[in-house]
Amino acid sequence: MLLDWGKELQALAQTGLMYSRDPFDRERYERIRAIAVDMLALQTDMPAERIRGLINAGYPTPKLDTRAVIFDADGRILLTHENSGEWSLPGGWVDENQSVRSNTIKEVKEETGLDVTADRLIAVQDCANHNGLSFPYGVIKFFVLCTRIDGRFEPNIETTEIRYFDEDQLPRLSTTRNTSEQIAMCFAARRDPDWTTLFE
Predict the structure, then answer these.
(1) Most exposed among 30, 44, 62, 168, judged by the fewest C-beta atoms under 10 Å?
(2) How far is Cα 4 from Cα 102, in angstroms, rounded to an integer?
(3) Could you give the number of structural domains in the chain?
(4) Considering Cα of 184, then 163, then 154, then 148, what sign does the dihedral take?
(5) Nearest-angstrom CA–CA distance, 11 and 51
(6) Is residue 67 domain-shared with residue 90, that is, in the same domain?
(7) Are residues 26 and 86 in the same domain?
(8) Radius of gyration of the CA atoms of the chain, in A
(9) CATH number, domain at 151?
């Protein structure tokens, strides 16, 4: 609850700072934002200074995260092995000047060395409802069904290994990136040619 209040206060303060021209109002909004940052620091693992650096100027919006869903000919799903020892779908934050489609393709190439096409949007989800994230900002996650067309994996700073897994033999997942329920959703989307994008 405090995390949600902190996010809301931060968003209200940031919006006020964007639109207000009155110096007294701006001073109040700055103070509200400082209180919100301290609240968020208490509820997350991030120090207040880092949170201040992550909060962008302008109107507050959530960060966007793309996850590529790639299956092999045997219907197994591709996961990347991270330095943390956990596994996840390839993906990451949407960079400036990237669309959801282009960012999905870019992240796959960077993390796996594979070339893919981004073909179909499986779901758009608010991570707060699915991934147990305690970030000081909102995160919207896009699951994109992709097709491998070329490429070869080489270990890199983000990924130590890639491997395909059956639905009933999943490894330990990085649940802030993808949960077993989200992986099951991806398998269901592959099986259903008439799948309708899920969004909330």
Answers:
(1) 168
(2) 31
(3) 2
(4) negative
(5) 13
(6) yes
(7) no
(8) 19
(9) 3.90.79.10
Measured N-to-C along each axis, helices 2-19 and 23-43 cross at an angle, to the nearest 10 degrees, of 150
**Residue 48 lies in domain:** 1-54
The one-letter amino acid at 105: I
Dihedral (CA of 160, 121, 58, 178) sign: negative
Query: Which tens digits make up the pLDDT trace of 27-63?
Result: 988 899 888 888 888 888 788 887 777 666 666 788 8
Q: Which residue is listed with tokens 């400036």?
A: 96
DSSP code for 173: B
Left, alpha or beta for 63 (phi > 0: left; psi -120 to 50: alpha)? beta
Q: What is the SS3 assignment for 106? A: helix
- What are 76-110's pLDDT values in tens digits? 999 999 888 899 999 999 988 899 999 999 999 99
Same domain, 31 and 83: no
Look at strands 139-151 and 63-70 and give their pairing.
parallel
